[in-house]
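Incident log, structure service

09:12 report received: a user says their structure output differs between two submissions of the same chain.
09:20 pulled the input from the user's history:
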Amino acid sequence: MDDWRGFAEQMASLARDLLAQESVHDTLRRITAAATELVADCDAAGILILRGGKVQSLAPTEQVVVDSDELQGRVGEGPCFDAARTSSGERQFRIGDFTDEAVRWPKYVPQARRLNLGSMMGFLLFTEDEDLGALNLYSYRPGAFTEADEKAGWLLASHAAVAFSSARTQAQLQEAIGTRHTIGEAMGILMGRHRLTEDQAFAALRRYSQDHNVKLREVAARVCERGTMP
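09:34 re-ran on a clean worker, output below:
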């Protein structure tokens, strides 16, 4: 990458664009799309996260991303799998050429060749408080990514981590507000129908939640729909 000034301007524009996205899903899709736009020779991109030890692909731009993520999860190794699994040690990884002998990831690399992958990079998405997964960049051409591309990918991943964390926090806040409103509405219904106090209405919702192993917000939503306890 020769035009770092132009890249910086594009990153500034991307930062504003990411903040304007309306949901976590939209934010992630914009991040992976930006990877293919801003990093030379990046043919596909996606975000890999681990939940309960299982791999999940988010916002993949191509099916090959999903296939690679599933392969890494299946064999339990790979650059993006390693990046998503831990924040200790290295936070970025690169396979320069899939046709070279696999030393570091001997189970993953030979099978990844069958996906027609030539080279790839993985970057941990992290903030000061949390690890969010890994941003994966793929090229079908061996030896495609240079040191400059790796720096560009790291800069993109840094912006992406902040945007991802912010979008997720906003989504959680909106969900909490919605849940609180739903519970309040359900309590009002029970108070009016059964002449309960506020504490009694909340206790009834909580007791049903515990007895039936149903989340409190789901119990409240059912009360709002039916006008009474399920």
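09:41 both user submissions now match this output. Likely a transient worker issue. Closing.
09:42 reviewer note: The CA atoms of residues 99 and 113 lie 7 Å apart. The helical segments are 4-19, 24-38, 63-75, 79-85, 108-113, 147-194, 198-212, 216-226.
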